[in-house]
């Protein structure tokens, strides 16, 4: 699963995701891509599940690029623990996804295989997405 090798600080504030993506909104590698429409946090497990669904449908032909990286540590306290006593330990890693951000790109497969693979991958993600192609650009 994806996570940073090391970070400057162990824990982060929650923050908010507002505004459009200020980078990563163009197709750079592949011919087809999965683009987010709404802001959301995507966990490392969700990214991995989407990647597996995409590569499984493509039958390991073609190429997949993951354009987001989970670099935000999300902490949580255990169940049935009283308030106070500091912030909880890191539970999972997440990526902040802004509207317009390209999340996955694929290339080397036919149009219908690419669209179906990205549709299956989008079902694993908590964001509304749109499939974009280089012809549409």
From TrEMBL:
Q: Which CDD domains match?
A: Ribosomal_L16_L10e
The record ties this protein, via NCBIfam families, to: rplP_bact
GO cellular component annotations, sorted alphabetically? cytosolic large ribosomal subunit
On subunit structure and binding partners, the annotation says: Part of the 50S ribosomal subunit.
Family of this protein: Belongs to the universal ribosomal protein uL16 family.
> Which organism is this protein's natural source?
Paracoccus amoyensis
Q: What does this protein do?
A: Binds 23S rRNA and is also seen to make contacts with the A and possibly P site tRNAs.
Q: What HAMAP family does the record point to?
A: Ribosomal_uL16
InterPro entries annotated for this entry?
A: Ribosomal_uL16, Ribosomal_uL16_bact-type, Ribosomal_uL16_CS, Ribosomal_uL16_dom, Ribosomal_uL16_sf
Alphabetically, the GO molecular function entries are: rRNA binding; structural constituent of ribosome; tRNA binding
Q: What name is this protein filed under?
A: Large ribosomal subunit protein uL16
* Keywords, alphabetical: Ribonucleoprotein, Ribosomal protein, RNA-binding, rRNA-binding, tRNA-binding
Q: Which domain of life is it from?
A: Bacteria
Q: Which PANTHER family match?
A: 50S/60S RIBOSOMAL PROTEIN L16, LARGE RIBOSOMAL SUBUNIT PROTEIN UL16M
- A Pfam family: Ribosomal_L16
What processes does the entry annotate via GO biological process terms? translation
**Would I find ATP-binding among this entry's keywords?**
no
């Amino acid at each position: 699963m994806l996570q940073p090798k090391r970070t400057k600080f162990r824990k982060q504030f929650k923050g908010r995701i507002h505004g459009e993506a200020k980078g990563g909104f163009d197709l750079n590698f592949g011919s087809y891509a999965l683009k987010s429409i709404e802001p959301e946090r995507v966990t490392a497990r969700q990214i991995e599940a989407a990647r597996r669904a995409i590569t499984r449908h493509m039958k390991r032909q073609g190429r997949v690029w993951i354009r987001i990286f989970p670099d935000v540590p999300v902490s949580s306290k255990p169940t049935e623990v009283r308030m106070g006593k500091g912030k909880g330990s890191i539970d999972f890693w997440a990526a902040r996804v802004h509207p317009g951000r390209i999340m996955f790109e694929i290339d080397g497969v036919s149009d219908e295989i690419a669209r179906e693979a990205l549709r299956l991958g989008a079902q694993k993600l908590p964001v509304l997405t749109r499939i974009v192609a280089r012809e549409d650009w």
